[in-house]
Write a structure and sequence with these properties.
4-stranded parallel beta sheet, D-amino Acid Aminotransferase, Chain A, domain 1, 18 strands, alpha+beta
């Protein structure tokens, strides 16, 4: 059985499910919005089986057997009906406890399938770990600093010149007062305005770019795209600050064989099967600089502009892995 752990409305998951259905491949999609008022959705675990009920269909899965688990995007408590109901009634410690129980259940659900093939395995893929592995496999990495002190940050900026900051964990868009605030990559300017201490944050030397490169990997198959974001002031620091009126040009791109080999070594070292890599091609030294990898990154943005048909690639990979059992 192919089991897909995802979230409601994820377009990439929707496309792969359509292709699996077209090929009559056995699969079950479980979204993380399990806890709703909809009585047609239910999930139970005992010492042998996972039972999942949706729209009067009951799936009984022996989790001791080997399955193929696509760990797509799973665990967004803030998007669930349970969260929306909870914030109306509770705050503080109670809301924290409910959130902890939600994530605790999802972690137990994942750990249940200990005998399965995971794409990708549940693990910690934090950015510091990524940077250290990138250095280990001899990728070029912008100098970086993680600190919570203004003093250390000032010394780093004096040493490196232009620097940027971004989220330590996943980027996020915050909705407040009827506005959306995306937490992207930003250039650090006036340090003097900061407090002497702040929340621990990551800072890196800003690499002036010729262009950005997004690389999607499926089981050692590499698909690359160049993003010409450097000529637009809105996207110059981070192409994800999308200019919807005048989108960046995106084209298929072939990265050097040496970098491809380093990416495969990186994937094996960190334990990923799929991943979306971000690189910068430097305008000053023409080197490729590793920024980060997102284990559950969007691949539709690479698939469609470049005609790579990555949804088909992933569907076939899931089916082939399921046949190996």
């Amino acid at each position: 059985m192919i089991i897909i752990l995802s979230t409601h409305g994820d377009a990439s998951t929707d496309e792969v499910c359509k292709l699996l259905t077209l090929r009559k491949a056995p699969y079950l999609r479980i979204n993380d919005d399990l806890f709703t008022k909809d009585s047609s959705i239910g999930i139970s675990l005992d010492n042998t089986f996972l039972r999942y009920t949706i729209k009067n269909s009951i799936y009984e899965i022996n989790y001791h057997e080997k399955h193929v688990i696509w760990n797509r995007k799973f665990g967004f408590f803030s998007k669930t009906e349970l969260y929306n109901e909870s914030i109306k009634q509770f705050d503080g410690d109670i809301l924290t406890y409910i959130s902890s129980e939600f994530y605790g259940f999802l972690q137990m659900l994942k750990s249940t399938f200990y005998n399965s093939k995971w794409i990708n395995p549940p693990a910690d893929y934090n950015k510091l770990k990524q940077l250290r592995i990138a250095e280990k496999v001899k990728m070029n990495v912008p100098s970086y600093l993680i600190t919570n002190t203004k003093n250390e940050l000032s010394k780093f900026k004096q040493s490196e010149g232009n620097i940027i900051t971004k989220s330590l964990k996943a980027s996020k868009t915050i909705y407040r007062d009827e506005y959306y605030y995306p937490l992207l990559t930003y250039k650090v300017n006036d340090i003097e305005q900061l407090h002497e201490t702040f929340l621990p944050s990551i800072f890196q030397k800003q690499i002036e770019k010729s262009y950005e490169i997004r690389v999607f990997v499926i089981d050692e198959k590499i698909f690359s795209m160049a993003i010409f974001s450097q000529k637009d002031s809105q996207t110059k620091v981070d192409f994800r600050d999308y200019n919807l009126e005048k989108p960046n040009r995106m084209i298929p791109y072939i990265i050097p064989t040496e970098l491809q080999e380093k990416i495969i070594r990186f994937m094996n070292e960190i334990g990923l099967v799929t991943g979306s890599f971000d690189f910068i091609k430097s305008s000053s030294d023409s080197l490729y600089y590793f920024l980060e990898v997102n284990p559950s990154g969007q691949f539709g943005m690479v698939s469609y502009p470049c005609n790579y048909n990555l949804e088909e690639e992933l569907t076939l990979y899931l089916i082939q892995e399921n046949l190996k059992k």
